[in-house]
Specification:
By secondary structure, the protein is of the alpha/beta class. The protein has a single domain, classed as Roll (CBS-domain). The chain is 39% helix and 22% strand. Strands 1-2-3-4 form a 4-stranded mixed β-sheet. A 3-stranded mixed β-sheet has the order 5-6-7. Strand 5, helix 4 and strand 6 form a beta-alpha-beta unit. The longest helix has 12 residues.
Length: 147
Amino acid sequence: MSITVDKVIKREPLVINENATVKEAVNIMSRENVGLLVIVNNSGKPIGVISERDVIKALARGKDLNAKVTEVGTVGNLITVSPKDNIYRAALLMNDHKIRHLVVMDGDKLRGGVISIRDIISEERVVSRLAELAEAKPSEAEVGGAD
């Protein structure tokens, strides 16, 4: 049995327009208690993300809080999963790319939210399943996507 990404996501994605400032992003992240926002263009298409880490690194480099989110976040290279991908694939992607969040996309549409490492490790059934999969050599079906 495969546990899919859509079964683990805790909330809808929070988005911010590409013309917004870092200060606006920080306010949203603080108010909503999240570590990542999806940056969308004026058409609502996801074009990147801005995370707590992005903000900290930008401030350390002397960036102003009035800078646009696109100057600070990661734009153009979204690491994504499908709602029907299994959580083992999501965990592998996070590990491989050294990130804590994945944007959930269905084709080119934002679907279901953002899955975080916290979402994955907060449920005992998910951690147990990951442990089982890690002990066995994963097959292409397990790693590749939904069953």
